[in-house]
Specification:
Layout (H helix, E strand, L loop, with lengths): L5 H14 L4 H19 L5 E6 L3 H15 L3 E7 L7 H11 L5 E3 L13 E5 L11 H12 L3 E5 L21 E5 L12 H4 L1 E5 L5 H6 L4 E3 L2 H7 L14 E5 L6 H13 L4 E6 L4 H7 L4 E4 L17 E4 L7 H13 L4 E3 L1 H9 L1 H6 L5 E2 L3 H8 L5 H15 L2 E4 L5 E3 L5 E3 L12 H14 L4 H23 L6 H6 L1 H14 L1
Parallel strand pairs: 1-2, 1-4, 2-3, 4-5, 5-6, 6-7, 8-17, 9-10, 9-12, 10-11, 12-13, 13-14, 14-15
Antiparallel strand pairs: 15-16, 16-17
The structure holds ligand LZDS7PUF and potassium ion (K).
Keywords: ATP-binding, Isomerase, Lyase, Metal-binding, Multifunctional enzyme, NAD, NADP, Nucleotide-binding, Potassium
Pfam family, one: Carb_kinase
Catalytic activity: (6R)-NADPHX = (6S)-NADPHX; (6S)-NADHX + ADP = AMP + phosphate + NADH + H(+); (6R)-NADHX = (6S)-NADHX; (6S)-NADPHX + ADP = AMP + phosphate + NADPH + H(+)
Length: about 500
């Protein structure tokens, strides 16, 4: 799914109106209807509702929602925030329609701002995607008061005051509990720094023109279940393990064999034909006992890896989980980078070695996959001042190094060598736990070995990892969830994606 900027959203809106065709006011009615349905599902109609409406189309949505909630027997109070003399046409129509049902109140200055009573639910329809400058004056005071209140706040389309795709977090912005946005997510929703403004966000479909969306150019995408299911290949009836590739995993050191084990299990559970693990001597019985399906290549060193094993007949290579940064291991990484013709995935200490030895980073083969968490990315690429800045650095980094970076987080960002960024839609805070990243490395390695292209392996791998985590949460909850659970639920995650495929 594409992520569009405010200008593109405006054009999409206009195109849909011209080509569906649908009157602008009816498109607003459809959007507001979707919001109202969401609201009615969530709150009983004895909930007192206070709606703050701006004077543009976001405000128009607010007025239409007010009418719909009145018709659904909610007790609704509406206040129009008169930050401008200019009102949009669809705002005016909805104002007239609502006037027939209730008395609309107005806020012209700070004195008009009401006390927000306890138990009230606020709908924020002050500004939407038309915001063009930071909120100021009495509207800023209103935003402060809403944020200081105990009320539950639901924003229509976007938290008022938040730019769709650039940084303004030091200005006045509504801190919503929920944001219900129209059809496409905004870039700002996907960045950690804006979580306190968006709260939990959801999308509602409003029938915007798919062909127009198709031809919009953007670097930013949001991975939906349909997107992921399109990437998933079918296994053939007349196939054998040779068809599903041979993965090589270089992992583990004394005290960190668990990381190698988790990664190896995930590689196998993601459908690879064969897996060889290259391990230090101390890992031999551990791996053979805990994971009989994996073959072992054993290093001469007791505690860490010092040799590159044979790369013959290997389809993809993963390196990093549970490694260390001993000088001999650095040589292994160097040799591997020079010799490997297969696709590579780098994680954990392999990334730290690259960060410490930038000349190695320059030699990493094109299309290799790097899977840093934000701190590891900082070590690799440098510091940034905010999340937008980091996104820009991420794009510059992948373009310059010609690699794929999987920047892990709540919405893991997969940056491709052409600068496109895919944000993941699965996963939960329970996955912020030891070994979770090792599992992801194993999943991606497995897909690479099965001949998925590196970009598909990264996108599908990240999606599956998050989906397995979401399924695990259903039984384990967030606190008790451990990385092994993610591996256990991979089978169910595949089943969910297969169902999506079959439904299409
Ligand atoms: N495309 C869709 O998906 C649909 C969207 N809908 C809703 O429409 C809004 C966008 O509405 P729009 O009228 O474009 O803009 P806003 O309501 O967000 O803002 C209104 C005007 O306010 C002015 N403005 C901007 N920033 C400030 C500020 N800081 N202080 C004061 N005034 C400000 C600006 O006008 P200017 O001429 O002054 O620049 C805005 O135009 C979208 O979010 C949805 O909720 C439709 O209902 C359905 C389809
Ligand atoms: K809003």
């Amino acid at each position: 799914m594409k992520i569009l900027n405010a200008q593109q959203i405006k054009e999409l809106d206009a195109f849909t109106i011209r080509h569906e065709p649908i009157a602008s006011i009816d498109l607003m009615e459809r959007a507001s209807g979707q919001f109202a349905d969401w609201f009615i599902q969530k709150f009983p109609n004895n909930t007192p509702v206070l709606i703050f409406c701006g004077v543009g189309n976001n405000g128009g949505d607010g007025l239409a929602v007010a009418r719909m909630l009145c018709q659904a027997q909610f007790n609704v109070e509406v206040m129009v925030v008169r930050f401008s003399e200019k009102t949009s046409e669809d705002f005016q129509v909805n104002e007239q329609r609502l006037n027939k049902l209730i008395t609309i109140q107005n806020i012209h200055s700070e004195e008009d701002i009401p006390l927000i009573e306890e138990g009230v639910v606020i709908i924020d329809a002050i500004f939407g995607s038309g915001l063009s400058r930071p909120i100021d004056g009495f509207t800023a005071q209103l935003v402060r008061q809403i944020n200081h209140s105990q009320a539950t706040v639901i924003s229509i389309d976007t938290p008022s005051g938040l730019y769709c795709s650039s940084n303004n977090s030091d200005t006045h912005i509504i801190e919503a509990d929920y944001t219900v946005s129209f059809q496409l997510p905004k870039l700002s929703f996907l960045l950690p720094q804006n979580q306190r403004f968006t709260g939990t966000w959801e999308l509602v479909e409003i029938g915007l023109d798919p062909e127009f969306i198709e031809q919009c150019e953007t670097s930013y995408h949001f991975i939906t279940s349909e997107d992921a299911s399109h990437l998933l290949k079918k296994r053939k009836k007349f196939s054998h393990k040779g068809h599903y590739g041979h993965a090589l995993l270089l992992a583990g050191s004394f005290g960190k064999m668990g990381a190698a084990l988790l990664s190896a299990k995930a590689t196998l559970r993601t459908g690879v034909g064969l897996l060889t693990c290259h391990l230090p001597l101390c890992g031999y019985s551990i791996m053979q006992t805990a994971l009989p399906e994996a073959m072992c290549s054993i290093d001469h060193h007791e505690h860490y890896i010092t040799e590159v094993p044979s790369l013959a007949k290997i389809n993809a290579i993963g390196i990093g989980p549970g490694l260390n940064q001993h000088v001999s291991t650095i040589h292994v990484l160097e040799k591997l980078i020079q010799e490997a013709k297969q696709p590579l995935v780098f994680d954990a200490d392999a990334l730290n070695i690259l960060a410490e030895h930038k000349y190695l980073l320059k030699q990493v083969p094109e299309n290799s996959i790097l899977t840093p968490h934000p701190k590891e990315f900082e070590r690799l690429a440098g510091e940034t001042i905010n999340d937008y800045d980091r996104l820009k650095l991420l794009q510059e980094f992948v373009i310059e190094c010609n690699v794929i970076v999987v920047l892990k987080g709540a919405h893991t960002a997969i940056a491709l060598p052409n600068g496109s960024i895919y944000f993941n839609s699965t996963g939960n805070p329970g996955m912020a736990t030891a070994g979770s990243g090792d599992v992801l490395t194993g999943i991606i390695l497995s897909l690479l070995a099965q001949n998925y292209t590196p970009d598909h392996a990264a996108i599908l791998g990240v999606y599956l990892h998050g989906l397995a985590g979401d399924l695990a949460r259903e039984t384990e909850g967030e606190e008790a969830l451990i990385a092994s659970d993610i591996v256990e639920y991979l089978g169910e995650a595949f089943a969910v994606l297969r169902n999506v495929q079959n439904e299409e």
